Amino acid sequence: MGKVTIESLGYRPKPIDPDFLTKYPETGTHHNHKVYAEGVQRYDEDGKPYPTKLGIHGTMVAVDFEACIADGACMDACPVQVFEWLLNPGKMGTGQDLDLSDKPELKYACDKSDPIR
């Protein structure tokens, strides 16, 4: 299986909606995190409907599964290594350094690489 590219998807993913918590309904839970907009038709960067309705998962680290291409770029770009912190408690960071308010250039690094907020 080759590398997934944006061009091969047939739609143009866009960054996660920063207002998703208030804009979309909470539609369920999955592995102890909240899910928003599951089953709701949403639209890509060009205004075309996404082919799936999987929704936005999580609030601490939110992933828009309609826009995710599963290439792992968000994990590489994350300035606070939140995935390591979450997956390997005690192994990477303390969680005390998650305030990026004094580092505006890093605040949306993950979001620019993938649909993460």
According to CATH, the fold-level topology is Alpha-Beta Plaits
Strand count, sense and barrel status of the largest sheet are:
4 strands, antiparallel
Q: Approximately how much helix is present in the residues?
A: 10-25%
Cα(first) to Cα(last) distance is: 28 Å
Number of helices: 5
**Uncertain stretches:** none
What CATH architecture label applies? 2-Layer Sandwich
Give the helices and strands as they follow along the chain.
Answer: HEEEEHHHH
Q: How are the strands of the largest sheet arranged?
A: 1-2-3-4
CATH hierarchy class name: Alpha Beta
What is the count of structural domains?
1
Shape: globular
Structural class: alpha+beta
**What is the strand tally?**
4
Mean pLDDT: 76
GO molecular function: 3 iron, 4 sulfur cluster binding; 4 iron, 4 sulfur cluster binding; electron transfer activity; zinc ion binding
Binding site for Zn(2+): 30, 33, 57, 99
Cofactor: Zn(2+); [3Fe-4S] cluster; [4Fe-4S] cluster
Keywords: 3Fe-4S, 4Fe-4S, Iron, Iron-sulfur, Metal-binding, Zinc
Task: Throw out a few tags for this protein.
4-stranded antiparallel β-sheet, 21% helix, alpha+beta, Alpha-Beta Plaits, 11% strand, single chain, 117 residues, 4 strands, 5 helices, globular
Q: Would you give an account of this structure?
A:
It is a single chain. This protein is an alpha+beta fold and 117 residues long. 21% of the residues lie in helices and 11% in strands. The protein contains 5 helices and 4 strands; from the N terminus they run αββββαααα. The chain has helices at 20-23, 73-77, 82-87, 104-107, 109-113; strands at 26-30, 33-36, 56-57, 63-64. It has a 4-stranded antiparallel beta sheet, with no helix packed on it. Strand 1 and strand 2 form a beta hairpin. The two termini are 28 Å apart. Zn(2+) binds at residues 30, 33, 57, 99. This is Ferredoxin.
